[in-house]
């Protein structure tokens, strides 16, 4: 489903458009962006345009919302809520700053805070789940500095190599629970 536009101090979240496809495709073709995807063994992850198309199509699902993150009116990444379950009041989140020159400026954290406030106020969610490869320092750093709790460590095999996967949860009804 399409979420509303959400405006913060430095970033704005807006619904995905079909015209975003070439940009997503460019981001997904950048090894620096996709090197930590744990879906690397899935055939579509090797085809940036297909991965971009699946993201856009996925945004049409009734239990998912995908936003484009804009800074200074230009798209720099995306943020999503997937597996939204209003019965258990949970969802899975992801955030990506695909424009590498725009990383480490606080945009992911602000975009996630906007999304999380929406998740509480409009969807009534209580818990957000996120997964990252242990070696993904940026993603781990973002979650660890935003109040997420490490709930599970598992192993997965990607291209024949065993890698550690970390599963995090954020309690939105706790103090500080509006983080990334
Ligand atoms: C992870 C990612 C979304 C972070 O985006 P960002 O806009 O650069 O993050 P922010 O500037 O908002 O940083 C917020 C906090 O996250 C942590 N962080 C961000 N990048 C980091 C890095 N490279 N190393 C360690 N910690 C990092 C820090 O705690 C940071 O706070 P600080 O700058 O005050 O120290 C971005 O690096 C990215 O998209 N990476 C590629 C894709 C990816 O791995 N996505 C996640 C898996 S789905």
Descriptive keywords:
180 residues, alpha+beta, Aminopeptidase, 8 strands, binds coenzyme A
Give the topology:
Layout: E1 6-7, E2 11-15, H1 21-28, H2 31-34, H3 48-58, E3 65-71, E4 74-85, E5 90-97, H4 107-121, E6 127-133, H5 137-144, E7 149-158, E8 161-171
Parallel strand pairs: 5-6
Antiparallel strand pairs: 1-2, 2-3, 3-4, 4-5, 6-8, 7-8
Helix pairs in contact: 1-3
The structure holds coenzyme A.
Coenzyme A binds next to strand 5, helix 4 and helix 5.
Radius of gyration: 15 Å
> Mean pLDDT score, rounded?
90
- Give the amount of beta strand, in percent: 25-35%
- CATH fold naming of the domain at 6-130: Aminopeptidase
The strands making up the biggest β-sheet line up spatially as 1-2-3-4-5-6-8-7
How would you classify the helix and strand content by structural class?
alpha+beta
State the CATH superfamily name of the domain at 6-130.
Answer: Gcn5-related N-acetyltransferase (GNAT)
Unreliable parts: none
**Broad shape:** globular
Instruction: Indicate the CATH class of the domain at 6-130.
Output: Alpha Beta
CATH architecture assignment name of the domain at 6-130: 3-Layer(aba) Sandwich
How many strands, what sense, and barrel or not for the largest sheet?
Answer: 8 strands, mixed
Order of helices and strands: EEHHHEEEHEHEE
Number of strands: 8
Which ligands appear in the coordinates?
Answer: coenzyme A
How far is it from the N-terminal to the C-terminal residue, by CA? Answer: 21 Å
Per DSSP, the total helix count is 5
Work out the helicity level.
25-40%
């Amino acid at each position: 489903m399409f979420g509303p536009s959400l405006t913060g101090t430095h970033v704005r979240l807006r619904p995905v458009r079909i015209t975003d496809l070439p940009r997503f495709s460019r981001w997904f073709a950048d090894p620096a962006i996709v090197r930590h995807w744990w879906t690397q063994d899935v055939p579509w992850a090797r085809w940036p345009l297909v991965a971009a198309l699946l993201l856009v199509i996925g945004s049409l699902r009734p239990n998912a919302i995908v936003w484009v993150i804009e800074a200074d009116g230009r798209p720099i990444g995306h943020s999503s809520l997937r597996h939204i379950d209003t019965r258990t009041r949970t969802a899975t989140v992801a955030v990506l700053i695909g424009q590498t020159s725009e990383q480490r400026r606080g945009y992911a954290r602000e975009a996630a805070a906007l999304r999380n406030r929406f998740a509480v106020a409009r969807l009534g969610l209580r818990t957000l789940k996120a997964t990252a490869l242990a070696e993904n320092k940026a993603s781990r750093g973002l979650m660890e500095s935003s109040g997420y709790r490490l709930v599970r460590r598992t192993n997965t095999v990607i291209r024949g190599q065993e890698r550690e996967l970390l599963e995090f949860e954020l309690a939105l009804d706790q103090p500080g629970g509006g983080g990334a």
